[in-house]
Amino acid sequence: MSKVTVVGGGAAGMLAAIAAAKNGHRVSLYEKNEKLGKKLFITGKGRCNVTNACEVEELFDAVVSNKKFLYSAFYAFTNQDIQNLLQDCGCPLKVERGNRVFPCSDKSSDVIRALTRKLDELGVEVYEREPVESLWMQEGTLCGVILKKNRKKMASDAVIVATGGLSYPSTGSTGDGYEMAVSCGHTLTVCTPALVPFETAEEDARELQGLALKNVKAVVSDGKKEVYAEFGEMLFTHFGVSGPVLLSASSYAAKRIKERPLTLSIDLKPALSREQLDARLLREFEEAKNRQFKNALGHLYPAKLIPVIIKRSQISPDKPLNEVTKAERQTLIELTKSLRFTLTGLRGYTEAIITQGGISVREINPSTMESKKVSGLYFAGEVLDVDAVTGGFNLQIAWSTGWLAGSSIRE
Question: In whole angstroms, how far apart are CA 385 and each of 33, 34, 77, 178, 282?
Fold first, then answer.
C-alpha cells in the first residue's frame, strides 16, 4: 500500500483518487475550493455533459491536440466505463442528440454527489479549502507536497497533479499545476483559451446580437487554407460569434488567430446548391413580382438577418422584385451561401471552456501518466497539453487520464 496524494478535486482528480483507492492505496485529495467539482458544476450550462456515447475509436476524431497520446488512457477507461461508474453510484444517465450523455436529472450536482459518495465509500481523505503550494522535492526526489497553510509538508509515495488549466479562473483553475511541473523540469507548451467565442471586426455582427442560426455550415479559413468546417448551430453576440459550431472551431483556430485575422464563411442554406437556390429565388420572385425587395425575404432569412442581407447586397430595399437583375440575384445567392465575417481574436479565459496547451506530453509516459522526469509524479486532465471539441470529449479526457494515473501507481 502506497500513500498517494491527489492535487485538485475536479473530474480528473476525483477519478484518480477513486482509481488509486480501489487499488488499495491510502489516498489524500487536496482541493483549494470549498467543495469538489466546482468547474464540473457549471459544465454543460449546469447540466454536465458527462461524456460522448460514440464508439471508442471515434473519441480520437474529436481530439484536437495530441490524440495519439490518449490511446492508452481512452482504452484503459472508456466512455462506457464512466457511464457504468456513475450509474453504479446512483446517477442515472441519458443520451441526447450528438451522442451527448447527461444525468437524467439534468443536474451536474448529481454527478458530483455520486463521485463524492464513491470517494467516501473508498475511504479517500478529502481536504477542502486546502491549497497545495508546491511539490516537496529533495535532491531531485519527490517526497510529497507542501501545503499553503503554514507550509506544512505532507509525505507521499506518489503525487497526482490534476489542477486544471487557466479557463474559468473563478473555479480555481489558475495554472497552479503548470508551476509545479515547471519547478521540477517540465516544459509548458503555449497556452491559449479554447472552446471560446470569437470576436469579429464587422459592426453588423453586433446588430445581429442574440440571433441563433441552426443547420448552417460554418467554414473558418486562413487565406485560402480551410482551418475548420462543420454543420451545426451558431449564435451572434455583442462582440462577435459563438455557439457550438464556433466554439469547436476556436480550438482549431486558436494558434493561427494570434498571428492574423481569419475569415468566417456561413452557408445559410447548406442543403441547397447555388443552382437550386437560384431556381428557388426565381420562383419566389416571380410569384411576388410586384412586391418590394425588402418585403420578399421572410421565407429565406430570419427577420433579424434581413436588414444585414439587404445592406450587404446593395440592392435597393424598395426595388420591385421584377426589376431585380440576374447579377443582383447572384449577389444574393453568394451572400446566402457565403456570408462572411472577419474573425479578429478569441475571448479570454473567463469565457473559455478549456485551455489549449499545457504540460508537454512528450515528457509524460502515455501508458501510465507518470512523469518521465520525476519518479512517482503523475499528471491528469486539463493540466496536460490535450484538448478536444465540444460534446463531452474533454470530460472524457479528464476521466480517462485521471483513472489511468490512479491505476498506474505501484506499491
Answer: 24, 27, 19, 11, 52
Position 303 scores a pLDDT of: 95
How far apart are the C-alpha atoms of 10 and 73, rounded to whole Å? 17
User: How far is C-alpha 16 from the chain's CA centre?
Assistant: 21
What digits encode the pLDDT tens for the residues 100-141? 999 999 999 999 999 999 999 999 999 999 999 999 999 999
The chain-wide mean pLDDT, for the chain, equals: 95
Furthest C-alpha separation in the chain = 86
| pLDDT at residue 288, rounded to an integer | 82
- Nearest C-alpha neighbor of 52 from the set 112, 109, 93: 93
Which residue, 270, 204, 9, is CA-closest to 125? Answer: 9
Look-up of cell digits 453510484? 89
DSSP state of 316: -
Residues 6+ apart with CB under 8 A from 25: 1, 2, 3, 4, 158, 409
Closest alpha carbon to 359 in 194, 196, 185: 185
C-alpha dihedral sign at 339, 342, 347, 353: positive
CA separation for the pair 86, 102 (Å, rounded): 11
Burial string for 276-296 (b: 16+ CB within 10 Å, else e) reads ebbebbeebbeeeeeeebbeb
Q: What is the pTM of this model?
A: 0.91
Is the CB of residue 83 less than 8 Å from the CB of residue 53? yes
Strand partners, 158: 4
Separation between Cα atoms, residue 154 and residue 212, nearest integer Å: 51
Instruction: Round to whole Å and give the CA distance between 257 and 314.
Output: 30
Cα 219 → chain centroid? 19
Residues 282/332, Cβ–Cβ less than 8 Å: no
Give 3-state DSSP helix, strand, coil % of the chain, rounded to 5: 40, 25, 35
